Amino acid sequence: MKHCGALMLAASSAFGATTPPPTSLFGVTMNPGNGSLSVPLQIVILLTLLTLLPAVIMSITPFLRIVIVLHFLRQALGTQTVPSNQVMLGISLFLTMLIVQPVALDMYHQGWEPLQKNEISSEQAFDAAAKPLKTFLLRYAREKDVKLFVEISHAAPPRTPADLELRLLIPAYILSELKAGFQIGAVLFMPFLIIDLVVASVTLSIGMIQLPPVMISAPFKILLFVLADGWNLVIGSLLKGFYA
C-alpha cells in the first residue's frame, strides 16, 4: 500500500509538472507582465465582458432601429403574434449582420489580428478596433444628442468628432436610433390608421356596434400590405437608410 501511495503521489506531481497553466484564450496570449493582472484574472475579465455581448449587439448596432420598426409594423397590422418574436429577432439579427459586416471586419483586422500576433498590447488593440466603430456610430448619432451627453458628463468639448469617447458616443447613438425608429414607426402607422378610421365609421353608421371594427379592418390592412409588397418596401427602406 505504501508503494502504491508513493506511485500515485509521484504520478500526480509529474502530471502537475507537465500541465502548464492556461496562457491563452480564443487565440490571444495572456502574458502577465510586471504589475499587470494574473492570467486567470485576465481570463475571468474577458469572459465577463463576453456576457455583455448581447447587450452590445442590441444597443450599438442597427438591430435597435430594425427591431423597433418591425414591432411598430406588427402593431399597425393588428397581428399581435404574427410574425412571432423569434422571427422578428431573427430577421433583425441577420439584417444587422449584413450591415455591420464591413465594420466588424475592419475592427478584426485593425485590433484583433495584431493582438493575436502579440504585435500590440490589449490597450492599443482596443483603441485600434474602436476607430471603425466610432466612424460607424458618428454617421448616425445626431449632433444634438452628442452635445447632450457631453454637457451632462461635463466633459471637455472634442476638437474633432474622432476625439469623442465611446462612453459618450454610444448613448448618443442609442438615443438617435430610438428617435429614428419611432419616426419610421409613426409613418408606418398612418395608412393602417386611416383604414381603421374608415372601417370604424362605416360599421357605426350601419349599426354594427357588437362587431369590433378591428376584426373587419384587419383583413383589409393585410391585403393592402401584401398588394403593396410591404415587406420588400420596409426592409429595403431600412437597409437603404444605413447604406446611404
Question: What are the defining features of this structure?
Answer:
244 residues; mainly alpha; two-stranded antiparallel ribbon; elongated; disordered N terminus
Order of helices and strands: HEEHHHHHHHHH
Shape: elongated
> How big is the Rg?
27 Å
Give the integer mean of the pLDDT values: 80
Helix/strand-derived category reads: mainly alpha
Q: What fraction of the residues are assigned to beta strands by DSSP?
A: under 5%
The tally of beta strands, per DSSP, is 2
Taking the sheet with the most strands, its summary is:
2 strands, antiparallel
- The helicity comes to over 70%
The number of helical runs is 10
Biggest β-sheet: strands ordered side by side in the sheet: 1-2
Quaternary structure annotation: single chain
What does this structure look like?
- This protein is mainly α.
- The chain is built from ten helices and two strands; from the N terminus they run H-E-E-H-H-H-H-H-H-H-H-H.
- The chain has helices spanning 2-18, 39-50, 53-59, 63-77, 85-116, 122-140, 143-152, 166-205, 213-227, 230-243; strands at residues 24-25, 28-29.
- It has a two-stranded antiparallel sheet.
- A hairpin with a 2-residue loop joins strand 1 and strand 2.
- The longest helix has 40 residues, at 166-205.
- The termini are far apart.
- Mean pLDDT is 80; it is low at 1-21.
